[in-house]
Amino acid sequence: MFSYRPAFHTGSHADILKHLTLIHLVQYLQEKSGALTIVDTDAGAGIYSLQDKFSTVSKEADGGIFRLKQYIKTCLQIPPESIQAYLKQIDTEKVEGRLDNYPGSPFMLARLLRHNVNQLKQSKQIDVYAEDSFASLKGLLPSPSRRGLILIDPSYEDKQDYRYLETAMQEALTRFATGCYAIWYPAISRRESAALPDFLKKIAANHKRSWLNTELRVENAPGERRLQSSGMFIINPPWTLEKHLAQVLPTLTKVIGINGGG
Fold first, then answer.
1. 77: buried, middle or exposed (CB in 10 Å: 19+, 13-18, 0-12)?
2. Does residue 153 have an active-site annotation?
3. Average pLDDT of the residues in 77-97
4. Which of 100, 153, 158, 161 is catalytic?
5. Which of 45, 62, 80, 89 is most exposed, with the fewest beta carbons within 10 Å of its own?
6. Range of the structural domain that residue 158 is part of
């Protein structure tokens, strides 16, 4: 079993890839004035401490968000615009100039909405469900607004998650073919993980949908149990996303790559 607990990976390279992509998708979709529905199927705690026992044990933030921020602080060149946008979101959690907390995707998505969401518990725009995300996604689609972004990032602790994801995507695209689907996955030495991008390509082709797949590896150390690589698979990506990633990924591999493994 692959163990993935969000608190251990807070601020890691996987979070950076996922959130950089997510921010660009939301910003692009909000360029039009029409309503937009966002579904985060596997939302966690929403905000995570970078000082608690989980984060300090794994130290993944040290090689992720903290290393990126240090590089930007000392670099003489202006970083890519997308990295600036990402760090702006992260820095909202600074207290007295110190970053103690990291916002997860629910908080990040809430802040990116056009409307000001200051107190999530009082917001009428946000619904939270404690349900099986794979089974309940179908019931949330199609989006009432006819425009939607669906983020799917399960833990994949159970190998069945890969099969459940494939079934959920088949159903989701049948009900809401034009939605933008952003799927995060760990790129690990497991048969199901290696096969996932090809399965998603086939699903997209069956529904005549475009796709974009990207992976970020920060280390190449066989036998190392730490998560070294992860990917994002986007169905119905905006035309700007490929250029966006082509600009930002070389910087990330340079900054957070370990021993030339980026």
1. exposed
2. yes
3. 87
4. 153
5. 45
6. 6-117+141-256
